[in-house]
Amino acid sequence: MLKPVLWIHGEALGPTNPALLAHPAAPAVFVFDRELIEAQRLSLKRLGFLYECLLELPVTLRQGDVAQEVLAFARRHGADGVVTSAAVDPRFGLLREQITAQLPLQVLEPEAFVALPEPLDLRRFSRYWRRAEPVLWGRGSAAAPPAPAPRWDR
Amino acid sequence: MRSVDSLPHDDLPRQFDNRDALEATLRQLFPQAPGGLSPIPGGRRAAETALAAIDPAAYGRSRNHLDGAVTRLSPHIRHGVLSLVEVREAVFAWLERSGQPPVAAQKLINELGWRDYWQRLWRQLGDGIWRDQEPLKTGHAPEHYAAALPADLLEARTGLACMDGFASELIQTGWLHNHARMWLAAYVVHWRRIQWQAGARWFLQHLLDGDPASNNLSWQWVASSFSSKPYMFNRENLERFSSGRFCRDCALAGAGCPFEASYEQLQADLFPGASPC
Question: Is B247 inside any structural domain?
């Protein structure tokens, strides 16, 4: 991809967004997802919070159909593809498919909070934490605290 | 301020004189979105200020109390304004700076772990986070729970000072202390017998940190479809962790408080058909 645009989404509105880090000079767009906003009846508080986050990022703001808006933004800048960061929301997968049908889309992974080999037993937090906690605390000279921590104290 | 329709290609505006101007523009752009702006501002500057103020040791000691030293980082983390890696590093830097032992930061690191855990589960379950992960352990059939929230709850006029206070704070600010979320969720699901999904949708409408994974799976934890028993509380617990601020002025504090009971009594009243744990 020689001349990409960046698609910024609501899971990565900070400077560690890997797409922004990889292409700091590329034009970037965020699209307020009209269908999602209406379906979930999102309050103005939530939209305002997002908007204020976006005002501190070098990004063009749009609203409407996300995939169509991203593709139109790419055409506007004569781009040969789109770069974005990975997202967990399954809706991201749908939008990604719609964009990929028309333009190459590269998805960059952000740095993991804790790197753990897959597959991981996620049936309860305690099972995950037995694996994750020693890895997290194993860095540097920090030693793992021994006591288990309950989620909500009764 | 430039009007919305004067920008090239119909891009949304980025210049505002103040928050009132931003709010006015947002009302124009999203006429169906209820309410106004939150008093909690978004953006990297606000996030960095909150991150610089964390005190992991005080957090560990007091986080269950409504007045405790909670970080309020969740809206910034939810939208990636701060990454979990950045917060993790800030906590470890605090440990080095303060000279405190690692155990001082254990609770906060644990909470970051919860965030990572929910996200990993979401990746695995997808939209399955909207379905019961396990059968309820309440003794009530799923169809005995109402599908929608009642008006008195949505309008914060149940008559219970605590629950009305939480509902008002949710609607006005878009943020609630974690313990308040648990109390409110337990009230909705167990005392009012409403499907957890209705409460989860309500929270997602309003919470600035509204993340379907953390939110829905925590509601399921309360409901008991993602835990071994339903979460409940009593007045003594709520009063203790809220310094009595609600009970003091509650019309039902003298008589009629539905939370005024021992856990054994509440278990018997709320879940009469449940198998013993």
Answer: yes
Looking at the structure, do residues B254 and B150 belong to the same domain, yes or no? yes
Please give the residue range of the domain that contains residue B108. Answer: 44-126
Q: Give the containing element (helix H, strand E) for B118.
A: helix B106-125
H or E element: which one contains A5? strand A4-7
pLDDT at B276 over 70: no
pTM of the model: 0.94
Q: How far apart are CA B149 and CA A28, in angstroms?
A: 40
Q: Which helix (H) or strand (E) holds A70?
A: helix A66-76
Q: Is residue B159 part of a domain?
A: yes
ipTM of the complex: 0.95
Chain A residue closest to B179 (CA)?
Answer: A152
Mutate: best of A5, A49, A88, A113, partner B, most B CBs <10 A: A49
Tell which A residues from 82 to 141 touch B, by Cβ distance under 8 Å. 85, 88-90, 110-114, 120, 122, 125, 128-129, 132-133, 136-137, 139-140
Query: Which of B71, B100, B126 delimits the end of a domain?
Result: B126
Work out the average pLDDT over B21-38.
Answer: 97
Residues B236, B209 share a domain: yes
